[in-house]
What does this fold into?
Amino acid sequence: MSIEPMKKIRIGVVGTGHLGRYHIQKYRKIEECRVVGVADLVEENARKAADGCDCEVLTDYRGLLGKVDAVSIAVPTGVHHEVASLFLKAGVDVLLEKPISTTLAEADELIALAGAKRLVFQIGFVERFNPAVAALRTLMGTPLFIESHRLHPFFERGTDVDVILDLMVHDLDIILHFVRSPVSTVDAVGVSVLSDKVDIANARLTFASGCVANITASRVTGKIMQKIRFFGVEGYHAVDFYKRELVSLSRRNGAGGQIEITENPVEIKAADPLEEEIRSFVRAVADRTPPPVSGKEGRDALELALRINDAIVRNRERAPFLAGSPGEGRMQP
It folds into this structure.
């Protein structure tokens, strides 16, 4: 009697820009998958991304319907809802790059569609899969103060949204993941520098637990910095997302009752965060289990990002010179 080979998950990738190309590469490394189609409005981009991959190349993502079991969606944020809703309505599992959408109403509809059909709906917060964050989970206590900096040089990609939805949202997701307490107050300031949207922002959050977070994001900085620091009664933890490093310190009672600061042993396993994210999605699809980053968590990060935007608007109303018009009163490169 012959054994029937395992049926592979048919994967489609929509959007072959910076991230979409990497999604294709990671799927091709996973034995349980087969990339059957790649879609992008620019055919040349799709063909380049699919080079060496025996799959269909499309300029209309709707052509993937009926041919795929699951899709990665890496298109501009403004069309997240349009593209994701089409696949969810068709019963296709979805990995949607962050942020989940531009409005809470859109996010709620996507979550409801996935829930009604019991589909896997995962949001692409890749920092959740950073090996330094994985190590931090074993050490984190109750944070009382958090400080994060996510600073990048300027790139045209991502400027369809402001820096809060482009970059800061990663840190908002990580902070919500570890604090697990409602946000009580939000204050923020933001400035447009090289685009017509906010390019530099700082937010100060106060949680019901008493924790305070100070968060800075910029996409007009000369060098990359992606760091977050957690302070608590039990110690201090500093993650460098870019270098995938973690420094963890704790206090203990030493000789004579003196308080000593010691460095905790940390084991960080070598891992590719995006590949881990893709593999987690594939496992959820194969096993029909909840994804590690749910649509609700994507909505929570979006809701907080929108609250920060509202706070920026309020501050601009108090200080109109911060608003300006495109190109007016801004720093020049």
About this structure: Residues 128-271+303-322 form a domain with the Dihydrodipicolinate Reductase; domain 2 fold (CATH 3.30.360.10). Confidence is low (pLDDT under 50) at residues 324-333. The first strand starts at residue 9 and ends at 14.
